[in-house]
Amino acid sequence: MSKFYITTSIAYVNADPHIGHCLEYVQADVVARYHRIKGDEVFFLTGTDEQSLKNAQAAEKAGLSVEDLVMKYYQRFKEIGRLLNISVDDFIRTTEGRHIKGAQKLWLACQKDIYKKTYQGLYCVGCEEFYQEAELVDGFCPDHQVKPELIKEENYFFRLSAYQDQIKKNLESEVIEIIPRFRKNEILSFIDRDLEDICISRSRERSRGWGIDVPGDPTQKMWVWFDALSNYINALGYSGDENNFDQWWQKNDDKLHMIGKGILRFHALYWPGLLLSANLALPKKIFVHGYLTIEGQKMSKSLGNVIDPFELIKKYGTDPVRYYLLREFSSFQDGDFSIGRLEKRYQDDLAHGLSNLIHRVLSLVWNNRGLFNLEKLSLDAGHSRPAKRGGNLDSRKILDPRLRGDDKIKTIETYNNLLENFEFNKVLDLVWTVIKETDQKIDQLKIWELAKTDSEKFVLESVSLIESFYFIAYLLKPFLPETSEKILELIKMDKEPVPLFK
Fold this sequence. Notes:
Layout: E1 3-8, E2 11-12, H1 19-38, E3 41-49, H2 53-62, H3 66-83, E4 90-93, H4 97-109, E5 114-124, E6 129-131, E7 149-158, H5 164-172, E8 177-179, H6 181-192, E9 198-199, E10 201-203, E11 213-214, E12 217-222, H7 224-229, H8 231-234, H9 242-250, E13 255-260, H10 264-277, E14 285-289, E15 292-294, E16 297-298, H11 309-316, H12 318-327, E17 335-336, H13 339-367, H14 374-377, H15 406-420, H16 424-445, H17 447-453, H18 455-476, H19 481-490
Parallel strand pairs: 1-3, 1-13, 2-3, 3-4, 8-14, 13-14, 15-17
Antiparallel strand pairs: 5-6, 5-7, 7-9, 10-12, 11-12, 15-16
Helix pairs in contact: 2-3, 11-12, 12-13, 13-16, 13-18, 15-16, 16-17, 16-18, 17-18, 18-19
């Protein structure tokens, strides 16, 4: 099997997760599940960024130790992943020994490009980054809308400027592919203004003693982004399992980072620079999604305009929340979150659309079950269901007879192309086209009348419709995994069907 490595960004644990985190989680989960269906060996990583200065500040404000604060919110991020049914293979914390050891190993591997100097600059704690005055908006951080703090101290720097030409060449030639393309153009424009060396440490005093020690200098803590970026290799065994690290990182060409647009610079410039310095392999792709906004403003803990995903899932359920995030918004642009639109999607698409379609046909079959051999009607009889971690969504070699047919093969080809380009909303548009066409077929056939007037045709058309339900369930598998499994259970017809959504 081909290896496919996929990561999300790791979240700061200074507050509860918000719905913006969930967008990235479910997008990455769709890609991971899709690759498993294709038959790839998948390693799906997420985690928490616990060494940040903002975590130390949040702990001070809450009257907690930093250890207690990060443990509290780490557990909340783990829980929201579970509630969203995210199929991760590993969850890394940057306070773990394997991460600390790996971050320090990377520092030493980059030693030839690290030097110390006194520096004064404008630092935004929210971004954990220095800004030039020209990058500010009316003197404020463009993301967090706060004035950066003027910092002057002696720190370590990484010679990023030495790798400017290599980084640019790798991006232009798509050794590292950035999706969507307009994000690539943004980064190339930034490089054309010339890359400056980056500060990669802070004083122990300013960091409140929190963070990973710089090797050989206990007066300095690593800049949080230096240590955070290394999580992607530390989880693979960079500092402890050479064989696993070689197989999944060094020798694997299929490595994908999924991130928000606000941290593209760190992943497309700083991370490749560190990897080049350490003589390590580069990631293959970086997918960049937009922000969820509230009334046009970025959703942010620091701005206080977050949506609580725990309450949403409690009220609407896991798959409806996943569906809204994946269907409502462009994969690449910002999207304005609305409870009203979530409820409309729930009612129109899930309850009155998908659920009603399947329930009315299966109820009709159940009520006329005397016309059928239900054991043979079940689409599981005589065919083996595709394995959960493998399958046949490859339109060129479809083995499952329920997925054959020119119309289905064409749909699968379009589906695959859209998913390979991370166009999640368009994939679901396609799936709902199949759902609507199936619904129209029922109305055209007037199958409820066939049950009374032509039992033989009723049986044949019912079997055809249930095959369509299998196809729909299969297409939904990466997006709405619980719903997909429920459909597959319903079409066994071993008990009276119930609605998927009400």
